[in-house]
Amino acid sequence: MLGFNESEFRAQIGSAVSLRPQIESYVDQLLAGGIDNILLVGSGGTYAQMWPYELLARQKSTMPIRAAIAAEIIESGDAQLNERTLAVFTSVSGTTDDVVRAIDYVSSQGASTIAFTGYPESPIAQKVGKAFISQPKTWPFDMQMLLLIGCILNQRGEFGDYNLVAGEMENLPDALVAVAEKAEEQAISFAEANKDTDYHFLIGGGALWGFTYLYSMCILEEMQWIKTSRVHSAEFFHGALELLEEDTSVIIFQGEDSTRPLTDRAEEFAKRISSNVEVFDTKNYELAGFSPVSRALIAPIVLDTVMGRVSKHLERVRDHSLDLRRYYRVMEY
């Protein structure tokens, strides 16, 4: 497969999943010490990647667990931020400037801090109270976040399926390699058909809303310089639908959680208007070794693997490197 290093991919996914004992030991210490709220702090893609776990907490927990934009919290603060706050950060490189500054800020307010990254000597790893290190360049951070938030909720008696889900995550390397292989045909077809498409409309909901935002902004806009619109499937019928035309490229991300009917409804309408609707659905993948409850929760990881194949083929057919930037980390701002 184009640009797919299976051994490196397996090592990265496996290294994230193998953090389970460390995470569970840390959670034991954390809850024994006493926390009463959690901030999931990110910037860009890592902010969006926090949303499924904020959603999981809203559905199951009475503890305030919410996502926050790193640059915004520095300027606006948070009324619940204090010495009983846990602030969670992620960064592939461990150098994201907004995240570095946010760690300094929440630490000054007394919060406990942890980070997931691949570089133990990076500024972010060095600044937090506890750094969990996976293989370099490991992405996404959904494995670690699901283990962390799932374990916290389980310890509070709010997530009885945690041990099932965490145990089944050991099957992720094999399952995701199979996903990548099966996704290749759709990825090639979509990229070839949309080589010259200059605008995409993306729809997703539930656990996949964060990924919808991320793929729209961080991949299509940042890495391919393609204009996009993105909307939560629950909000699609409140304005966004008016942008559709008969040739609008519509990308729909469909998962297996309770919000699936909302995305089904948006898909049905989009197909009535546009002749260019592409659905990427986790139900199309076997995911051997995963129960229904786990399938719903790992949907962002599955779609990240699927769309990773799409991204590589868009890079190929458009002759536009995924590493090319005009402004991000190029200019001062």
Query: What average pLDDT do the residues reach?
Result: 97
Q: Note the beta-strand portion.
A: 15-25%
What is the rounded distance between the termini?
A: 38 Å
Give me the count of strands: 9
The main pleated sheet reads as: 5 strands, parallel
CATH superfamily of the largest domain: Glucose-6-phosphate isomerase like protein, domain 1
Strand order of the largest sheet: 2-1-3-4-5
Describe this structure in words.
Helix 2 packs across helix 8 (142-155), helix 10 runs parallel beside helix 14 and helix 11 runs parallel beside helix 14. This protein has helices at residues 6-17, 20-33, 45-48, 51-60, 70-76, 97-108, 123-127, 142-155, 162-168, 172-193, 209-221, 260-273, 292-297, 299-318, and strands spanning 37-42, 65-69, 85-91, 112-117, 130-133, 199-204, 227-232, 249-254, 276-281. The chain is globular. The protein has two domains: 6-160, Glucose-6-phosphate isomerase like protein, domain 1 (Rossmann fold); 171-318, Glucose-6-phosphate isomerase like protein, domain 1 (Rossmann fold, 3-Layer(aba) Sandwich). It is of the alpha/beta class. The strands form two sheets. The protein has a five-stranded parallel sheet with strand order 2-1-3-4-5, sandwiched between helices.
